[in-house]
Design a protein that fits this description.
single chain; mainly alpha; 72% helix; elongated
């Protein structure tokens, strides 16, 4: 069963195993109590940057918190789509699920990079380490996805088919074991 798993598939699965529960919990806390959820450790740098440097009022901070939670849930949704597509062996072998992973990596990297920059501006070292680690995880997965190509079509199937086949009639079926 695990013979046709690529390194990128395993890497994306491990990445999803971390980001789906972690970012869902953070987004849920922001949706339940926006200000309290924004001032928790994963988002405190964004909250401090918004209040100190951008001097946002209360309702604007709540809207920014909801926007951050929506961005995190978007990444979670694309990672869940990626995991669902991995369950189909043909899609996994051909690399068809890499598009959902790529979108999740792009949006997640953007959020982590912006949060890391905000954490460095406000001097929040614990949040800076967290966001830098998340960014490195996402960029490492992106590099693996870009470098690793899906396997080509099987040469055995192409070699088994004779070069001059007349078109099949509708009632005839062509299966590999019927040749």
């Amino acid at each position: 069963m695990f013979r046709n798993w690529r390194i990128g598939s395993v890497n994306g699965t491990l990445l999803a195993a971390y980001f789906i529960p972690a970012w869902t919990l953070v987004a849920f806390n922001i949706f339940v109590a926006p200000v309290h959820g924004l001032y928790e450790r994963p988002s405190v740098a964004v909250a401090l940057f918004l209040s100190d440097h951008l001097q946002m009022a209360g309702m604007d901070t709540v809207r920014a918190a909801w926007l951050l939670a929506l961005g995190r849930l978007t990444v979670v949704a694309f990672l869940a789509i990626y995991l669902a597509l991995l369950c189909i062996p043909r899609t996994r072998k051909s690399g068809g699920s890499d598009e959902a992973l790529g979108i999740a990596l792009a949006i997640g990297s953007l959020i982590s990079f912006a949060s890391m920059v905000m954490a460095s501006k406000v001097g929040e070292m614990a949040a800076l380490r967290l966001h830098a680690t998340e960014l490195l995880l996402l960029l490492g997965a992106a590099i693996v996805v870009v470098i690793e190509r899906p396997e080509a079509a099987s040469k055995a199937i192409e070699a088994a088919a004779p070069p001059s086949l007349e078109p099949l009639r509708l009632e005839q079926t062509e299966l590999l074991h019927n040749r």
